[in-house]
Amino acid sequence: MLRFLETFTVLRLLLPALALAAATLAAPQGAPAAQLSIGAEVANRIASIEKASTTDARIESAAHLAEYIASRGPVEISNLDPPIIDGMAQLLTDNDDWVRFYVAAALGFLGPSARRAIPALERALERTEPPKDILPGQTRMFSGITSAQAICAAFAKIDLTRTPDTCRRYP
Questions:
Q1: Does the structure show a pLDDT above 80 at 35?
Q2: Model pLDDT, residue 4
Q3: Cβ atoms 117, 164 nearer than 8 A
Q4: Does residue 5 belong to any structural domain of this protein?
Q5: For residue 33, pLDDT beyond 60
Q6: Roughly what angle, to the nearest 10 degrees, separates helices 118-126 and 97-110?
Q7: pTM of the full predicted structure?
Q8: Do the domain assignments include residue 21?
């Protein structure tokens, strides 16, 4: 019985490594296995923003997108497929400033790999709106914040040389 428990413990410890090895072998050559699942997850989160039936649901989904990307390591998110970046950039046309805020933050978290979104960020910056009231459940630290701050921060993280003059007045 002791031998069985030792074998079971060893197998239980090895299963995660075996699953990772299998996922790596199943991935297309040159593509890390984890990247495929992250790309799919980001695409699902973009779709949830697009499908949301209310403004509050879009804001919440956009916040979850930004949080998810921020929680990933730079290597994991450095090579998202261009259609995924384009999908995020398209969300910058949303009518709600908070959605644009969170999407711009998400693009900023992607860093230089989001360069293709710069034209969309420039267009979104032109839609600057006056600061809105904080949302229910948010702390006062969000008071007075608009998507312009997140867009300017995204420029700084994506390509500092492309930062518009408009952004240079934000601290």
A1: no
A2: 37
A3: no
A4: no
A5: no
A6: 150
A7: 0.72
A8: no
Distance of alpha carbon 101 from alpha carbon 37, whole angstroms: 25
Question: Does residue 10 lie in a domain region?
Answer: no
- Backbone phi and psi for residue 58, each to the nearest 5 degrees, phi listed first: -65, -45
Kindly state whether residue 75 falls inside one of the protein's structural domains: yes
137: CB partners within 8 A, 6+ apart? none
Give the separation between CA 21 and CA 19, rounded to whole angstroms: 5
Residue given tokens 């879009």 in the structure block: 58
Q: Confidence band (pLDDT; 50, 70, 90) for 19?
A: very low
Q: How many domains in the chain?
A: 1
Categorise residue 138: left if φ over 0, alpha if ψ from -120 to 50, beta otherwise: beta
Q: Label residue 54 left, alpha or beta by phi (over 0 means left) and psi (-120 to 50 means alpha).
A: beta
pLDDT value at position 20? 42
Domain residue limits at 118: 55-171
Burial category of 147 from C-beta neighbours within 10 Å (exposed 0-12, middle 13-18, buried 19 and up): buried
Q: Pick 73 or 61 by higher pLDDT.
A: 61
